[in-house]
Write a structure and sequence with these properties.
Strand order of the largest sheet: 2-1-3-4-5-6
Number of domains: 2
Number of strands: 6
Shape: elongated
Radius of gyration: 26 Å
Strand content: 5-15%
Number of helices: 7
CATH architecture of the largest domain: 3-Layer(aba) Sandwich
CATH topology of the largest domain: Rossmann fold
Amino acid sequence: MFINDKYYIFSIMIVFLTLGIGIFIGITLNDNDVFSEGQKDLLAELEMEFEHLRDKNKMYKQEISNLNTHLYSIEKFLENNIEKIIKDKLIGQKIVLVGFDETVTEGITNILEIAGAEIYSEIDLKCGLLSDIDLQTSFLDRFLSKPDYVILAGNNSGNNQNDGKNHNICYDFIDNFMLSDINIIVIENEMDISKKYKKEKITTIRNLDSAFGQISLILSIEKGLKGYFGSFDISEKLLPN
């Protein structure tokens, strides 16, 4: 799941050590057919190291299993208490929601409403309907006052034939937000936007369908935190501090 690096590292080490022992035995048998005392000692050391690594691998595998079980229990607790945890955390916050997929934006809207946020506006970018002229229009011209946050939600599926167009629209919007000094949070599913803007420290959240993703969204807005949250390759933490 999340915690598996040690297990895989030791598994790889065991594979290479086993291969090394096999090669050593094969070469020795081909050359002499008989082991010298020094070779026997070396082989014994290799076998001991192999056993040591195998035991460590088992230990780390069990440790990972225990940690993932604990993580699962935490997630279930959060899921069962999500409304109590986020309720009224964002009262007074004006949020603009921009997205391509209604199933994603509806889920975000529900979470924000539980947290007490004001949905200042919702902009539907589905099917790349905005023209180049629309994209050049100042984002702030659409509103009477500046929103506290803009949440940009990517596609729910990577099979959309408009993905290339949608990526470009996302990039144009993000650039516009940054020029206007507007706080941005990117919600990612299949669309990988965050890597392009990693240096700009744009807050990115993945797995919004999980309790970790939902709480990360609310805490990021409430505390003004920046980072990469969720279980994906460039994430820093599952949850903000």
